[in-house]
Design brief:
There is one protein chain. The radius of gyration is 17 Å and the shape is globular. 47% of the residues lie in helices and 19% in strands. By secondary structure, it is an alpha/beta fold.
Amino acid sequence: EGFAGLQFQDKQKTTRFLNWVTAYQQQYNHFSGIHLDVEPYTDSSWQINEQPLLDQYFAYIEQMQHASKKLGLYFEIDIPFWFNHVTYTNRFGAGIASHWLIDHSDGVTIMAYRNDASIIIPLVADEFAYAQQQQKQVTIAIETAQSFEDDFVSFYNASPLALYAAIDTLYDSYGTTIALHYLPTWQAL
């Protein structure tokens, strides 16, 4: 697991992380991949600085993709389900953010944080179809932690049967790995 939040903007931390991963991998060869959860939209200026933040984020992803490839590691990133509605126009070209990220990774985990499979299924359809077309691995992640955004984001208050029924429905619909965020709240269910 890599950096969460906005650490992609800290070039020194990125350099330290890559140096550490490289040294560790060369010595022990234990890692099979790098999985990043980087969320540029959590920056308080996202609403007014979306394009510059995407530009910085894409540069970071490209750097991490290159480093992963150089080390022979699988490279996967988390993306929010709504990134298929975010467009970019920057030095990387123009297009749909989720598509660019899928193109620059070996696989993605779509953070589909809703508490109803019938709502999640259409939310991830575009990213899933595009990733399949590009022959990239897809994982669909659902939330079990309490959400302060709204009640419909998480299975936190759901019964275990409702959670497992949703997992079954998602798996039946997409035939891919379903991830649960996160372990302690899933165990509490």
